[in-house]
Amino acid sequence: MKELAEGRAFVLLYHYQSTPKKHLAMNKSFGLDAPLIKFEGDLGTTVWTIRDAVEGVQIFGGIGSGKTSGSGRLFAYKYLANGFGGLVLTAKADEKQLWQKYCKDTGRLDDLIILEPNGDHFFNFLEYESTNTPSGKPLTQNLVQVLKTVIRASEEKSSGKKDDPFWDNALDMLITNAIDLCFLAYNNVSIKQLFEIVQSAPQKEKKGQKEKNGFDDALAAARIKVNNQVNTLEASLTDEEKSKMNDNDIEILIIETLPDAALLKQINLFFKETYFNLSEKTRSIVEFCFSSFLSQLIRDPVYSLFCRHKSTFTPEDSLHGKIILLNLPVKHYYKVGRDSQILFKYIWQRTMERRNVKENNRPVFLWADEAQNFLHEYDAEYQATARSSCIATVYISQNLPNYYANMGGDKYQYRVKSFLGTLGTKVFHANADIETNQYASDLIGEGYAIDWSQSYNTGEKISIGKSTSFKLEKMVRPDRFNGLATGGPPNDYYVEAYIHLQGKVFKNKLSHMKTIFTQH
Fold first, then answer.
1. Residue 484 and residue 98: Cα distance in Å, rounded?
2. What's the domain range around 59?
3. What 3-state DSSP class applies to 44?
4. Are strands 494-501 and 512-518 parallel, antiparallel or unpaired?
5. In this predicted model, what pLDDT tens digit does every residue of 8-59 receive, in sequence order?
6. Least confident window among 15-24, 223-232, 458-467, 493-502
7. Looking at 282, 297, 312, which one is the last position of a domain?
8. Do both 58 and 204 map to the same domain?
9. Domain for residue 452, yes or no?
10. Are residues 214 and 245 in the same domain?
11. Is 210 helix (H, G, I), strand (E, B) or coil?
12. 3-state secondary structure labels for all residues of 478-499
């Protein structure tokens, strides 16, 4: 049987030339059809454009396969050289130095913002989310959604928590009412205030306890604020109006006229009735989920970087060409590093989605090596609209099981594959993982190959018969990925990979081709 030639016929040869010290001239129009990479093969050149970039990139490859130093390096240089802004999440300690080199080589070092302990930059997410609203007024739901997303991502990774609307709703109500109480009492919200309110909220075994605490202080401040509004409202009523109203009428007027009064009544009802009467086990689980997350935020380095100081930058800076790097590598800071990066990532994603591309169409990239560490439930929804917001996602990971293990929840395999389906370009380097190789082979698909057969007749006369037929088989068998070149001196610093494009074909009339990336 003749081997399918399409599996290995086409190669990419890319040679990066060092950039002059002057900043590269940027493409101010940022047209979606502007070329970024040329894939050269025997039948011609296929151009990979900004349009392809904003449809997303997923790179798979085993340890030492060259996924970071080969294809990942190429995409990074191309995005930087063409003026993209971006966000870089870090899992390994050397990624800061790597991106400093990338930015230096492309004349973008002045655009690099590094958020790290003992550094020069800070981002106060509470301040940002509280004020970055269309009306300019605090919007509780903004903060609720941010905190819930990070908490859920943390739970899914650590425990494989199943999806349960009850727990989600209970957590949602606790976060919402705690934040509302903070805003109502102090006109702002802080992590320490939230932590104290949740820790000291009324509970059955402490009923009647008189000492002051964070919850009582906040509730008293909120009552003073609302009482002042009520006094002002009552003073505005004439004696005739008052004579026609009973106590119930006055209470209805207060609730309908003063939003803060209605909010205080709702908060009081939640903490002293709904939350108070929860079973001890149920309440302890909900409270622990929220409190354990808040306890991370009130400790350094996270508190100093994300809560204590005024912001020195915002996600919008990426839209003006800045590259924001979060130097809190997961391998060094573990859960704290992961959760704080997911927090900023989610805020950055929502900000990029709100952009007006007619006013600013600069492409931005979201970069995550060891991307399984940074997944959250909103990723698939975000990626589905990333193209229209000119966001180029690049996720790099070793294999599919890494994503499965970190996604958690019910039907995690479908959730992962649904997310991967939103990434238009996939690059498969050398890999020893059976499931990932099978996924790559299935994605590339099947094709017809010529099947040669011979027959021998040894009767009175010897005769040989030959026949050919077409047989449908995998264009790239799963075992082929295991033998791809991994770079380094043994391979003359060349890295092999198969690249697959969604909705686009190479000059070979196929949606995939075999490529070579250089590490030089």
1. 25
2. 36-117+325-446+476-518
3. strand
4. antiparallel
5. 333 333 333 434 444 444 445 688 999 999 988 777 888 999 999 999 999 9
6. 15-24
7. 297
8. no
9. no
10. yes
11. coil
12. HHHHHHCCECCHHHCCEEEEEE
List the one residue out of 336, 427, 415 whose CA is nearest residue 379.
415
The verdict on 74 and 217 lying in the same domain is no
For 271, which DSSP code? Answer: I
Q: How far is CA 33 from the centre of its chain?
A: 26
Enter the DSSP assignment of 120: S
User: Are 91 and 327 a contacting pair, CB within 8 Å?
Assistant: no
Residues 310 and 127 sit within 8 Å (Cβ to Cβ):
yes
CA–CA dist 68, 488 (Å, integer): 13
Instruction: Please tell me whether residues 79 and 154 are part of one structural domain.
Output: no
Q: Which amino acid is at 168?
A: D
Same domain? 108 vs 153: no
CB neighbours (10 Å) of residue 427?
24
Element (H, E) at 144: helix 140-159
- Backbone phi and psi for residue 88, each to the nearest 5 degrees, phi listed first: -115, 120
Closest Cα to residue 376, out of 186, 153, 136? 153
Q: Report the pLDDT averaged over residues 180-195.
A: 92
The CA distance from 502 to 513, in Å, is: 12
pTM of the model: 0.86
The phi, psi pair for 343, rounded to 5°, reads: -60, -50
Same structural domain, 245 and 331: no
Residues 146 and 258 in one domain: yes
